[in-house]
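(Deposited chain)
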Amino acid sequence: MAEYPLDPRQFALIKAISAGGWQAPVLWLDRAGIALLAVGLLILVPALLTTGSIDLALVSQLGRYSALALVAIGLDLVWGYTGILSLCQALFFTLGGYALGMFMCMHGPMDPQSGTIPMQLFVVTSDPKLVLPGFWKPFSDPWFALGMVVILPAIAAFLIGWFAFRSRIKGVYFSIITQAITIAAWLLLCRNDLMLCGTNGLSGITMLGGFDMRNPAMKVAVYVVSVLTLLGCLIAALALVRTRFGRILVAIRDSEARVRFTGLSPVRYKTAAFVIGAILAGIGGALYAPQTGNINPSNMAAIDSIWVVVWVAVGGRGTITGAVVGCLGVKLLESYLTTYYAEYWMLVIGLLFIVVVMFLPDGLVGRWRAFVGQARKVGQARKVGLTPRTTT
């Protein structure tokens, strides 16, 4: 029989950890994080679907969460890096969703009498002489619709940000204003006379580019597009915050007055960050609408913007990757709890947020980065021979 040492320090693994050998896999995992996320979402998930280990509903769910993660990345740029707590990301998300949703409606089932009015619009009015509103017609063109996915949120963000930042509105006052604007927009979209289907919104949208979104192959295709868009925007955002523009955003967050004294215009940089965050949210809405088959005013409810703040706070503000981790983690946890413990899920989510605020103020990714920094220090110490000797 093999004899095991009585002293646990004699084990090779424990000796390696004691000597500081644990830092190598930690540093590798930190460098390969995005690649592992890509492999998991683009290779592992489709492979599990093919083998029947997971169902199509879970794949569609992950596709929707990938779209929502784009909204969180946008808020992290605005809140985490620029220090502006915006509560209108849901507004930009819904505008992007409506832009693509109207295109889908224009190529979906039409009113059998006129043949030119989308059924989504026809069923919410009692006017027998209804004529297709002029602003609907351009959305039959795919390039116009895709342009509006970006342009509508960008214009809304520019108008809100430029006038608010020029007036030096910030802090809780800016949060209140953005929340009030979102609620006003919600009330406006709920009106039937706006000809955007009122409280029903654009429901039952199934056709995208001539393909039926109820087809399993289309669901997988949109999932892949959502994941690729998420990964592309994640990498682009990480690159952006490492540029001079990103450093100025951090400087504005830390001391806007000092930035102003250097001759730079904080208004322009804050507005630019706000517009970029809105565009990301609009793209997220455009990816979300075809996967759910509807987009309506309830998507810009006040609580939805607050949820985005929760995702970023849990994942770690000022990290970009934390926005993705927080969104995917919280949404998956929410899905699990609502399925098996529906009566407790709000309590658990609330406790999770309290724990993060009190004990993990930097979020999950912020704490991970601190751990990686410690691992890097240990590795550097080993290179110069400063690691303490372990006794055996």
Notes: Residues 55-301 form one domain. DSSP finds 16 helices and four strands in the chain. The CA atoms of residues 205 and 293 lie 5 Å apart.
